[in-house]
Design goal:
Helices cover 34% and strands 17% of the residues. By secondary structure, the protein is of the alpha/beta class.
Length: 258
């Protein structure tokens, strides 16, 4: 697998069940160790580091199925997200970060003292996103953010993802809902059985017949979809390499990384 996320991008990783999407996320975070190759972040190898060290370097995860702490309040969940901030020299930034996070999710401010487990599914997803942002990541990993949400809430969540990206956070999103993911992404990868079989710009993937049939549920007679109705495609960020996360296959692991 050779996967790269450039600074300032939204990149989506598509694939069916058991294709390796979540395993890729876990490998980046050090939960799963790669048997071959390397994982690099901002030009430095991070494979082999413990997960807490990887998070401290600026990578956060919004996990599949949200996985909030149901018996803790909303505020306590947010505080857990800032756990590594002092190690990154952000001891005094907690209140500012929490204010910025809840500013994106005003319902969380209203429910600060409510138990996380009593929130609706959409509110729990927003709490999971806000908790991840508390660590002030430069790379945000999102695993199936639309899972279990009503269509209107899916649109709202993906609007917020775009806002987070515009504020300077690079995003890698794993998603089975290809239409909404490609509708906001700059580039995309298609994963099958742990291997990347297609990679292109999001716009090109939306136009590709085989992608539309396999992941968008279209037949050959249906016209190409261009993303969600009314959604503006994000501005192409160029080809900046600083801040890129890269998984390098074994035959290239000694090649200098540009």
């Amino acid at each position: 697998m050779d996967l790269e996320v450039r600074q300032g991008e939204i990149v989506c990783l598509l694939g069916g069940n058991a294709s390796g999407k979540s395993t890729t996320m876990k490998t980046i975070l050090g939960i799963v160790r790669p048997r071959q190759g390397t994982v690099e972040f901002e030009g430095q190898r991070i494979d082999g580091l413990p997960t807490e060290a990887i998070v401290s370097r600026g990578i956060s995860l919004v996990p599949e199925a949200r996985r909030i702490f149901g018996r803790m309040t909303v505020w306590e969940n947010l505080t857990m997200g800032a756990y590594t901030a002092p190690a990154r020299g952000a001891r005094r930034a907690g209140s500012r970060t929490s204010t910025a996070s809840t500013g994106l999710f005003p319902r969380l401010r209203e429910r600060a003292d409510q138990k996380g487990g009593t929130l609706s599914g959409g509110e729990q997803q927003m709490l999971a996103m806000a908790r991840a942002l508390m660590a002030r990541p430069r790379l945000l990993l999102m695993d199936e953010p639309s899972m279990g949400l009503a269509p209107a809430l899916v649109d709202q969540v993906f609007d917020i993802i775009q806002t987070i990206n515009r504020q300077g956070t690079t995003i890698l999103v794993v998603e089975q809902n290809a239409t909404v993911a490609l509708g906001i992404a700059h580039r995309g990868y298609v994963l099958q059985n742990g291997r990347i079989v297609v990679t292109d710009t999001a716009a090109a993937l939306l136009r590709a017949d085989h992608i539309r049939r396999a992941y968008l549920g279209e037949t050959e007679s249906e016209s190409p979809r261009r993303g969600r109705r009314g959604r503006r495609r994000p501005h192409e960020p160029g080809h900046r390499r600083a801040g890129a996360e890269r998984v390098v296959p074994p035959e290239r692991e000694r090649t200098p990384h540009s």
